[in-house]
Amino acid sequence: MAATCNNICKAATSIAISISTPSLSTSSSHLLLPSLSLLPKSSIFSRNISTSSSRLTHVVKNPGRVNFRVMSSLSDSGLEDTVKKTISDYPVVVYSKSWCSYSSQVKQLFKKLGVQPHVVELDQLGAQGSQLQDVLGDLTEQYTVPNVFIGAKHIGGCSDTVELYQKGELENLLTEAGAKKES
Fold first, then answer.
1. Which residues pair with 153 in a beta bridge?
2. How far lies 98's CA from each of 78, 95, 119, 158, 165, in Å?
3. pLDDT digits (tens, 9 = 90+) for 18-77
4. Which segments of the chain does DSSP mark as H helices, in order?
5. Fewest beta carbons within 10 Å, which of 54, 143, 180, 182?
6. Separation of alpha carbons 57 and 166, rounded Å
């Protein structure tokens, strides 16, 4: 995707970048800058930057380059609605990647507990999978998988889920959500 920088301006600790694109779709792009003197001095920064037709997320400063991801606002709201509907329709939802060992560990734990979560394998959804992962990150501030929801409440990832199990709290949450019958 060819993106051109229309405006780069520095305000106290933030940066505004306006870009124009012929058609927006989720893809990583790079904006090469002749000078990074306009950017904040921190080595890494992240901002959500809004424009009228798109949103830039995950801005990370590297020597000589600013990486950014462009997503259409319209598709974000539709995917956000999809995520919200999915987590409200199912007592347990795991957003996963089929090759991820942490995702497998969470799915095995639920199997051991006799719970069948609704699993969404993001890596098997093509471009929509990465868009969904970005939307999940925006909603939960967790950009990794697995991303676990119980009773429409965000639980966290693998470590969080296992920790709840080890504390004896996971089964209560599953029962309250209607995912597991009381023993």
1. 150
2. 24, 10, 10, 14, 22
3. 333 334 433 333 344 333 344 444 434 333 443 333 444 444 444 444 444 444 443 577
4. 73-89, 101-112, 127-140, 158-166, 170-176
5. 182
6. 35
* Element of type H or E holding 10: strand 4-11
Assess contact for 90 and 62: CB atoms under 8 A: no
pTM of the model as a whole: 0.61
DSSP-derived 3-state class of residue 149: strand
User: Tokens 């507990």 correspond to what residue?
Assistant: 113
pLDDT in tens, 7-18: 333 222 333 333
What whole-number distance in Å separates Cα of residue 108 and Cα of residue 94?
Answer: 12
**Residue reference for tokens 């405006």:** 7
53 contacts: CB under 8 Å, gap ≥ 6: 24, 72, 73
C-alpha span between 159 and 141 (Å, rounded): 15
How many Cβ atoms sit within 10 Å of the Cβ of residue 119? 17
**Calpha distance 164→174 (Å, rounded):** 11
